[in-house]
Backbone:
């Protein structure tokens, strides 16, 4: 079964979450992980769902105002965390912290969804593979002792595809996924799952499902409406 990750980002309020949980009750399989805003993680956990945080602090505990420790998140039952999302790399300089955060997560038995992806200019200048390799090296090189084939999952999210309705052609997406897998295999002897993220929706899911190298999805906007999200995940094998 493919892994499906619902990243709500900074969306949905208290009443929306209550409604969401009512709508999806008894309709979601175990391969779905919810990444609501941290405030609502407990609501999903208490209703029996697998949960992940959208981020963790770069420190384990202490004086970091506004951050949340992986230990605190672990206490409320997260099994996963997203690290290196392009929005965090852009707004919070997360390029600097990706390897520390991965280390903290994996040392505390929290699985990591590592986001990598190129921007439009890099894509147009055929720099995609260079960017992806650098983001992979930054994340993995210092953490080889804690990474295994199950606890680190790559999410390939072209930045130009996030929230734009655009997605790569099937040839490009397949080629890029295979390049990521081959690189990880030859350089680090790792066989990691590679998810796709960026404008996954009800209209393109059947197209994406034909691409064999996709091991799952990281879904933003299309996970926010519970009825539509249910229709979407029902189309994933
Ligand atoms: P959208 O599905 O809204 O394009 O967002 C993708 C994403 O960034 C998921 O992490």
Residues:
């Amino acid at each position: 079964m493919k892994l499906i990750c619902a990243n709500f980002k900074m969306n949905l309020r208290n009443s929306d979450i209550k409604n969401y949980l009512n709508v999806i009750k008894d309709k979601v399989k175990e391969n779905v992980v919810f990444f609501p805003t941290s405030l609502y993680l407990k609501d999903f956990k208490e209703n029996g769902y697998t949960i992940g945080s959208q981020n963790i602090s770069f420190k384990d505990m202490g004086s970091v105002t506004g951050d949340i420790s992986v230990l605190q998140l672990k206490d409320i039952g997260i099994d996963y965390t997203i690290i290196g999302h392009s929005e965090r790399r852009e707004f919070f300089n997360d390029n600097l912290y990706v390897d520390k955060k991965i280390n903290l997560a994996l040392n505390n038995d929290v699985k990591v969804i590592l986001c990598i992806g190129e921007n439009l200019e890099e894509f147009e200048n055929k720099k995609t593979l260079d960017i992806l390799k650098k983001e992979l090296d930054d994340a993995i090189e210092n953490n080889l002792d804690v990474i295994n084939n199950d606890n680190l999952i790559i999410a390939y999210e072209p930045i130009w595809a996030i929230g734009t309705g655009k997605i790569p052609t099937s040839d490009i997406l397949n080629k890029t996924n295979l390049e990521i897998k081959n690189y990880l295999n030859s350089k680090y002897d790792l066989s990691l799952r590679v998810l796709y993220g960026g404008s996954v929706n009800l209209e393109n899911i059947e197209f994406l499902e034909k691409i064999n190298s996709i091991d799952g999805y990281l879904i933003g906007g299309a996970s926010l409406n519970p009825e539509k999200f249910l229709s979407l995940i029902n189309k994933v094998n």
The beta strands are 3-7, 32-35, 50-53, 80-83, 111-116, 152-156, 194-197, 216-219.
